[in-house]
Amino acid sequence: MRDRKIRAVLFDLGETLLDFGRLSTTRVFREGARVSHAYLRSLGQRVGPFEWYCWKNLFILRLRVLVSSITGNDFDAFALLQRIGRRRGIMLTDEQWREFAWRWYEPLGRIGRVQDDTPPALAALRDAGLKLGIVSNTFVNRESLERHMEQFRILEYFPVRVFSYEHSRRKPYPGIFERAAELIGEPFERIAFVGDRIDKDIRPALKFGMTAILKAAYTNAGKSPPRGAHRITHLGDLPALIEELNVAAVPCG
Fold it and tell me: Could you tell me the pTM of the whole model?
């Protein structure tokens, strides 16, 4: 009997590690536009009236999001905003551009939270010898996401971080899971995948032979996990579940 003990755990990001809940994307975008517009003005950049700046960027980003949802191809929102800014004559240093990206993300960052039991659970998994990584569908710049995770002191647990905008395609595209498995150094049958989306996380994990674990969130409220998947309410439940699964996976005799 082949050893199928779990040696690594991959996590989705939004509504799995970071909880944002239901929110008004237009309101969050508008606040990000306000903060980034003020930042550019503080640097003496000529950015024009706020409303023009806000709605032009909103139109372009929403168009790209629509295309992404249809094609399954992702995009780098920071690179897009940077190109728009440079065409308007905005000149910043690399450090200022990174801060500009953070100012766009900051209002969303103020909303996102980590449950109290998440850091201890991650520490327990790491101390048990498990490799940890992230696989996330996102067009948000890596540095902004990592800065947010660092605020909650969870970034250190994830040496492997795979973001869809860096790989062009979004989950459930097989390539993004294959890349994560390659980076974490384990075959699919020894990896658990924890996520909140049945369509993007759980069904693909089962298809590729991973142990699929659905974390309760508003995105799956009232839905049952597919056959063969497991369910947890909080990430604090995860170490005990994996220990139980690993005990059951040890070959007998």
Answer: 0.94
